[in-house]
Specification:
Blueprint lengths: L11 H9 L4 H8 L4 E2 H7 L5 H14 L2 E4 L9 E4 L1 H5 L2
Antiparallel strand pairs: 1-3, 2-3
């Protein structure tokens, strides 16, 4: 499976460990519990995390299915991040 991203989680513990593996991921999941947030809101709330790491962790959470990143095609451009049912089940 070169070049593709495949997750084979057999139980909820595997998913939870994947999230905990990131330094800022548990904090991001916690911040998203109250509802969808824009990137700027997360950046303000998660003080101490660099822009690069924040974007990287959000993309990983999106790829793993815990966070849904939506672009409502609004002007000005904005992306909302929200927990999926899988992401909510981890809390």
């Amino acid at each position: 499976m070169t070049g593709s991203y495949f997750l084979d989680f057999t139980c909820w513990r595997d998913v939870a460990l994947r999230i905990v593996a990131g330094k800022w991921k548990p904090l991001l999941v916690y911040f998203l519990l109250s509802g969808p947030k824009r990137y700027s809101e997360l950046r303000r709330t998660a003080r101490g995390v660099s822009d690069k790491m924040l974007i990287q962790h959000l993309k990983e959470l999106d790829k793993d299915g815990e966070v849904l990143r939506t672009d409502p095609k609004a002007i000005p451009s904005r992306i909302d991040d929200a927990l999926t049912p899988l992401g909510r089940s981890l809390t």
